[in-house]
Structure formats: structure tokens, C-alpha cells
Amino acid sequence: MRKNFGKKTIITPLPVVILGTYDENGIPNAMNAAWAGQIDAHQIIVSLSKHKTTDNLERCPEFTVSFATRATVTASDYFGIESGRKVNKIEKAGFHAHKGDYVNAPVFDEYPLTLECKVVELKPDTDGYLLIGETVNMTVDESILTDGKVDLGKMEPILFDSAMNKYRVAGEIVADAFKEGMKLR
Ligand SMILES: Cc1cc2nc3c(=O)[nH]c(=O)nc-3n(C[C@H](O)[C@H](O)[C@H](O)COP(=O)(O)O)c2cc1C
Q1: The CATH number of 14-184 is which of 2.30.110.10, 2.160.10.10, 3.40.50.300, 3.40.50.720?
Q2: Measured between alpha carbons, how far is 84 from 116 in angstroms, rounded to an integer?
Q3: In 43-122, where does DSSP find H-type helix?
Q4: What's the confidence (pLDDT) of residue 127?
């Protein structure tokens, strides 16, 4: 038996990306975005409402994209329920920010994997914006590398479960991509 849910749309897994920007006074800000994805080898796309983050992007078209982890879940959710318009979220969370080597945007020490990005397009739409960014550098904490590769098992990125409004942890390997299907070829 299957059940129909009409137009309800669940895309899974949704990442939990953290967009890092500076405001006009150089104060770092972070916001949580789950409506995000990769559209080619070096570009990311995010669906955004109007936020402090989009104000910052309109002024300075550079940002960072970090990935929330099990270790950072409390701060990462906080970055999605509070606005940088009201409070310095980075100070409140006790996070540490420094300017990226390649962009004028903050890299947070607490997130082990961060993309440094430039805005390709911040396109207004009915509800807000569609942000397309191009990665110019990826910076990774060595603690999550295995044989020089990013190891999601060590990183423990969290996913947004839009069906239940929960965060889940990713990391377990179940098969080799491009190989497992060979068993049926
Ligand atoms: C799990 C989660 C996912 C979210 N995803 C998005 C998103 O994809 N796009 C968006 O515009 N806002 C999203 N938000 C809401 C923003 O993070 C929130 O409005 C935040 O306060 C904006 O911060 P800012 O005003 O400091 O930029 C999400 C919030 C949570 C908790």
C-alpha cells in the first residue's frame, strides 16, 4: 500500500549549510540554509528569503559556505532562528571567525569544511532570492582528512529532515558509488 501526499515535496537529504557574510561594519554573520544544492562542479545554489545575510550579499558579493556538524548542531540551529539584524550571533555562540584567504567573508574555526564563494547571481524572485555562487577555494581542517581526502565519517555532517523537522547525522558508508551496481550489470 502507498499513500499520496499531493504536492508535498520532500527532497532528501537536504544539507545544512551555513552562509557566512560580513556586514557594513565588518561584523561576521552566519545563517542556516537547508534549501541548497550543487549545480555543477564548482557552483552552489541556495533559495533565500530576505535576511541580514542577503543585505550583506547585496553590498559585498562574497560569502562562505560551511557545513553544520554533529558537534556544532546547537549553534547551527541558532544561526537559523535568530537574525544578525538583532544580535551578534557569532559572539553569542562563542564562535571564532577570521577572514577567508580568497574572499571577503568569514571562515569559522568551528566548521571543519568551508567553501569560499563569489556571487554569480543574486536573483530576486517572488519570495526572496535565488543565490548562485562559484567556489574559489575549499578550506578543510586536517582533523577530518583520511589519506588526504575529506572523510564524512570523521566530519559527521548533519542533514535537515524536512519530513520530521529534525537534524540527522550522515557518515556511514554502505557501498562504493559507480561499483555497487556492477553486481547487476
Ligand atoms: C533548518 C533551517 C533551514 C533554513 N533554511 C533556510 C533557507 O534555505 N533559506 C532561507 O532563506 N532561510 C532559511 N532558514 C531561516 C534563516 O536561517 C533565518 O531566517 C535566519 O534568522 C536568517 O539569519 P540572518 O537574518 O542573520 O541572515 C532556515 C532555518 C532553519 C532552522
Answers
A1: 2.30.110.10
A2: 20
A3: 52-59, 73-81, 89-93
A4: 85
CA distance 146 to 61: 33
Nearest-CA residue for atom 4 of ligand 1: 33
Residues with CB under 6 A from ligand 1: 29, 31-35, 47-49, 51-53, 77, 80-85, 160
With residue 158 as reference, give the H or E element that holds it. Answer: strand 158-161
pTM over 0.90: yes
CB 84 within 8 A of CB 52: yes
**Cα–Cα–Cα angle for 107, 121, 55, rounded to 5 degrees:** 60
> How many whole angstroms separate alpha carbon 17 and alpha carbon 65?
6
**Which atom of ligand 1 lies nearest, measured to the CA of 36?**
8
| Tens digit of each residue's pLDDT (9 = 90 or more) over 154-170 | 999 999 999 999 999 99
Tell me the three cell numbers of residue 15. Answer: 544539507
DSSP state letters, 30-47:
EEEE-SEEE-SSSEEEEE
Residue 133 φ then ψ, to 5°: -125, 155
CB 137 within 8 A of CB 153: no
- Structural domain boundaries of the chain? 14-184
Q: Tell me 170's DSSP state.
A: -
Please state, in angstroms and rounded to a whole number, the distance separating the CA atoms of residues 148 and 49. 37
